[in-house]
Design brief:
The protein has 199 residues and is an alpha/beta fold. The chain has a 5-stranded parallel β-sheet with strand order 2-3-1-4-5, with helices on both faces. Helix 1 crosses helix 11, helix 6 packs across helix 10 and helix 9 crosses helix 10. The mean pLDDT is 95.
Amino acid sequence: MNRIIIIEGVTGSGKSSVIRDLKTLLPTTTYYISEEETLGSLMQQVRDESWKAEPHFDALEVSLRHIEQHKEKQPSEIIVVERFHPTGYALFPYWEKLEAFDKRLFELGACIILLSFEASLTERRSIDRTENNEYADVMIAYYGSRENAIAAVQTSQQRRIDALGKTRLPYLRIDTSMKDWRTYANIILAFSSGGIDNT
């Protein structure tokens, strides 16, 4: 069984919803690491020219050390991680800067679950999110326009898909266009348990 499950995907892909349903299926001792921990200030850092000259993924490093320490103390416990180095690649597409994370995660027995949806749903799912009416304003302010925000999310999703071709971790890509969260959670559980092949 893959005891470290990385849940990846662009905003609106259903990470929180899938994790919510996974919590009802996984043992109560399962350890969860949020995207606030793994992402840190990366969204701002990638816009800094001095950072781009010497990129460093501090939040990923701290989170991975945390994972390694937890696995040393509780080797049998499952860890669910919301976003990791595929997000880093989506924001800064230089895999060689992230490969060391991939190697360490492989040695720990991690897997990646990439949640994605049809490109035509980008505006509805990632910009005009029904659970947060202010989110569209935030996205538009960050990217400069609604059109830029939509294009950025689509690029970000494609880069995550591309990252699956680079990782050494076992992975599963799930189309969440139908929002069938319980089914997706069961599929993830079966995959991480070795019950199904990656698609």
